[in-house]
Design brief:
Blueprint: H1 2-12, H2 25-32, H3 36-48, E1 52-55, E2 59-62, H4 67-96, H5 100-142
Antiparallel strand pairs: 1-2
Helix pairs in contact: 1-3, 2-3
Length: 144
Amino acid sequence: MQTADALRKAIQDGRLAPGAKLPCARELQEQFDIANSTAQNALRLLKEEGLMYSVQGRGVFVRQLSPRDQFIKRYNESLKEMADQRRADEEAVRLSGKTDAEVAAELEAAEERFAKARAEFEAAADHRDAMRAVMEQRKRLSGN
């Protein structure tokens, strides 16, 4: 049932939040261009699945997802995020226009520059610390 599938997906992905009022059968007929019996069957199916409940005279509402359904929703969201990230990573690699060997060579050169800069920084810090010690020594000798 396409109508039930569309409503189920809207509930599962959060577009129809728990407590939200679902369209009545007449609104579903107009929205999906379906017969009244098809709309009624879609609502009945969702009710049987435990995704909605009805309140006499008020309408039908989205039920809070069960812990199992909440887990499945989070799991599916994480799968989608991972797939989206993989596609983005693949696109970034493609757009870089570089081979794995070229990137590895650039990384090696960057690591070498970093090691040299670190050594220079550490030597400068050691020299500064030595000069501070000399200055402190001079201050002590001059009585300051």
